[in-house]
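Entries read sequence, tokenised fold; example below:

***
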Amino acid sequence: MRQRSFILPAFLLALLALAGGGLFLYDQRAASRVGQRVTIGGVAVGGLTAAQARTKLERSLRAGLREPIVVRGEGRTFRLTPHAAGATYDFDGMVDSAITASRAGNIFTRTYRNVRGQPLNLTLPADLRYSRLVVTRFVRRVDNAVSRQPVDAHLEFAGGYPTRVAGKDGLHVSFPGLRRQITDALTGSSPSRTVYVQGERVKPKVVKAQLAGAYPRLIVVDRSSFTLRYFRNLKLAKTYTIAIGAVGFDTPVGMYHVQNKAIDPAWTVPNKPWAGKLAGQVIPGGTAQNPLKARWMGIYDGAGIHGTDQTGSLGSAASHGCIRMAVPDVVELYERVPVQTPVYIA
């Protein structure tokens, strides 16, 4: 009786040891396989051994390393090849991660799950290694080429008249957003390898309709016709005949402003050979020797608009760089234009 009572427990223990050993061996064999319904980078590797999973990943993902990332924006196309970005996959690391995830739980829960074929429904990202510096430089190149500053509406001058030119919208591209789009396309997080640049339109600060208000007063000097035109809100208000600088004393061309004004101004004679004995002297205003008659509107480095009693010089190139007007005309213009009035000389 004692011997029988000893044999039964021993048999049960042996049976349990055998079952445990079988359970252990089964678990060890499963240790080299990926669990059911596991994908890596969109590639199904569930139920495969580590070697099989690696082979399938290489076959599926390496093809993507031959396809460039194409970026389109504002009528331009840019390409970044994975090779240029130093892109490569860590296949061993991805398979190891999948198997580690498949081994979650203890030996009993793993065995129960494997025997019943329960899916893990696990999705793992592809581990793509690439040069972030190269990608950043590529994004900057696209950004610099596509982004643009808005252009304000402005005036252009032809034939002695101002022409209103409409402004242009700018385009602001989010650098972080564009980098994220390109990175997602490179790593496969995005299903498409084509990226369309999404920019925000930036309106100009000055639009065409605002130009008249921006130029309440404007003087345009047309040297070719010896004409000064005065505009109010870009509408022609008055035309005057003038004299301009003689050859060698050319009236300066470009956009200037009325810098200062004076009635019967004194004349500081330039220290130039043409000034003769008067060079360097200051001639009081209103005197016969002072050629700056009645009014003065300075515009640039000693050059200005002033009256003259040499009315015969009007309509010709006769001055030392200044713009001459008949005395009644310069008096009239003087009252119309404040300091900072734009003066365009063509």
